[in-house]
Amino acid sequence: MEAKRDMTKKVPVREQDPKVRAANFDEVCLGYNEEEALAEAQRCLNCKNAKCVTGCPVSIDIPAFIQQVKEGKFEEAAKIIARSSALPAVCGRVCPQESQCEGVCVRGVKGEPVSIGKLERFVADWSRAHGFVPEAPAEKKGKKVAVIGSGPAGLTCAGDLAKMGYEVTIFEALHEPGGVLTYGIPEFRLPKDGVVQPEIENVRRLGVTIETNVVIGKSVTIDELMEQEGFEAVFVGSGAGLPRFMGIPGENANGVFSANEYLTRSNLMKAFREDHDTPIMEAKKVVVVGGGNVAMDAARTALRLGAEVHIVYRRSEKELPARAEEVHHAKEEGIAFHLLTNPAEILTEENGWVRGIVCRRMELGEPDESGRRRPIEVPGSEFEIEADAVIMALGTSPNPLISNTTKGLEVNRRRCIVADESNGKTTKEGVFAGGDAVTGAATVILAMEAGRAGAKGIDAYLSAK
Ligand code: FAD
Ligand code: SF4
Q1: 93: CA distance to ligand 2 center in Å?
Q2: 102 CB contacts (<8 Å, ≥6 apart)?
Q3: Within 13 Å and on the Cβ side, how many CA atoms surround 269?
Q4: Which bound ligand lies closest to the C-alpha atom of 103?
Q5: pLDDT of residue 276
Q6: How far apart are CA 267 and CA 262, in angstroms?
Q7: C-alpha–C-alpha distance, residues 323 and 56, integer Å
Q8: Which residues pair with 210 in a beta bridge?
């Protein structure tokens, strides 16, 4: 007789074995198959007052799509998700569900929450495999809108505007669209050809044109787009791609990378593939400084490229800003964590290459303005970690190119564009903004929410014109 199922527990998701995956770039999480998705969907209580929806920044009708999954109507489920999200296969993989929809799911009170993210991923993957594509809008408004940047903010804004009938062109500085989804998050978490590109293709199918290799502020300015090229409104979704450094001695040595450069070389330039000729340093022992998703991604990439990897983070495990799942995966794969540890100096060989890093032990004091306990150095606690490469993953800020070249576009002291959260309106008429360019480095789903708000703001502005 089949054992009674414990409904307080999630249906476990299959993953590649840690020992095997540590040496390849294939996706770590294998997702649910049909049978597993149906079983997990049964756990949803279809709450009348569904808390999960309030936890989702784009308010996906979660109980409604899960109900369709329960009934095996996967295309219907995909249609429900598509009303709120243009990138479900991406979000199902990288959203911090544990602190959003799943964090408030009532199932979580007496057990594990419903695996909403894995169900979203299942529906998105199923619909892609079965050729379900969004319909292009019939009505055209005859008005041109420019979107700067093709990350989640730009793609969402462009897709929503195209659905409303606007003629939308995305201008992207890099040679591939997708923003961080393409150049930052590694293949083993978010496959490019299999997941990111098809979702971008769906945005194109709505009628959006994507022009790559166009750096706004260099190739053409926002003022020129509006005054000479006939764009009646502009949405700036240019992200926060400028890396921060610590300013410690030795940071200019050969073998010190920003996580952005390291990840871009691997993801966008495909340095991890033997058939590509853009090089990446083959380091033997790598120290990654930082504790966010970016640090985990850089560390796990370096591991897969053959290095022994050490993460150095100045606060404790509790304060690690990376998703719990990423930390768990990094540990499983054999990455060493040096917590309550802060770099003081990077040591170099006579030839200018990195040979190690001097660190200090830290302890936690009173909470700082971020609400987290402030790390304080323990005097006389210096020690060395040998390394031939150091990757700095300390956060990023928006590149000032656009604000420096656009008259009347105000930025705050963190160089973020000042914009109204509810509609993306900036201090310059006809220019809207959202995503990391406004908030500083945040998350995919918050960028999508801002893209959606920007599209609504632009529609209201152009409708009233
Ligand atoms: P971006 O994705 O940065 O896109 C901006 C685009 O604008 C880029 O393509 C850029 O080339 C282009 N651009 C910039 N300037 C110009 C210009 N002058 N002209 C034309 N184009 C320009 N979030 C999560 O939710 N979950 C995760 O697991 C996660 N992991 C992450 C891992 C890494 C390594 C990084 C770097 C970030 C991660 N994030 C994660 C954060 C998330 O990816 C970002 O918050 C999100 O991508 C921001 O979206 P955006 O559209 O505002 O900007
Ligand atoms: Fe289902 Fe949880 Fe949402 Fe309730 S809160 S509808 S159980 S996913």
Answers
A1: 19
A2: 52, 55, 108, 113, 114, 115, 116, 117
A3: 12
A4: 2
A5: 74
A6: 9
A7: 16
A8: 170
Which residue out of 444, 449, 452 has the highest number of ligand 1 atoms within 8 Å of its CB and is therefore the one to mutate? 444
116 lines ligand 2 (CB under 6 A): yes
Detail the DSSP E strand segments found in 298-349. Answer: 308-312, 336-338, 341-348
In sequence order, what are the residues at sequence separation of 6 or more whose Cβ sits closer than 8 angstroms to the Cβ of residue 364?
315, 316, 340, 373, 374, 375, 376
- Nearest by Cα to 155 from 451, 435, 462: 451
Quick: pLDDT tens for 94-149. Answer: 999 999 999 999 999 999 999 999 999 999 999 999 988 877 777 889 999 999 99
**Longest Cα–Cα distance in the chain:** 74
* C-alpha torsion 246→251→256→259, nearest 10: 20
Residue 306 CA to residue 254 CA, distance in Å, equals 19
Instruction: Choose the residue to mutate in 8, 9, 40, 46 for probing ligand 2, maximizing ligand atoms within 8 Å of C-beta.
Output: 46
Per the prediction, the chain carries an average pLDDT of 94
Of the ligands numbered here, which is closest to the C-alpha atom of 87? 1
DSSP letter, residue 398: -
Q: How many CB atoms lie within 10 A of CB 193?
A: 8
For residue 268, the ligand closest to its alpha carbon is 1
- Asked whether the predicted pLDDT for residue 1 surpasses 70, the reply is no
Task: Give pLDDT tens digits for 216-252.
Answer: 999 999 999 999 999 999 999 999 999 999 999 999 9
58 band by pLDDT with thresholds 50, 70 and 90: very high
Closest CA to 399 of 258, 263, 261, 240: 240
In this predicted structure, what is the pLDDT of residue 138? 74
Q: Is the pLDDT of residue 2 over 70?
A: no
| Distance of CA 116 from the midpoint of ligand 2 (Å) | 8
Average pLDDT over residues 32-54: 97
At 301-323, the pLDDT tens digits run 999 999 999 999 999 999 999 98
Burial of 25 (0-12, 13-18, 19+ CB in 10 A): buried
Which of 66, 98, 102 for mutating ligand 2's site (highest number of atoms within 8 Å of CB)? Answer: 66
- Residue 95's pLDDT is 93
With H, G, I as helix, E, B as strand and everything else as coil, classify residue 380. coil
228-256 burial, b if ≥16 CB within 10 A, otherwise e? eeebbbbbbbbbbbebeeeeeebeebebb
Q: Is 8 in the pocket of ligand 2 (CB under 6 A)?
A: no
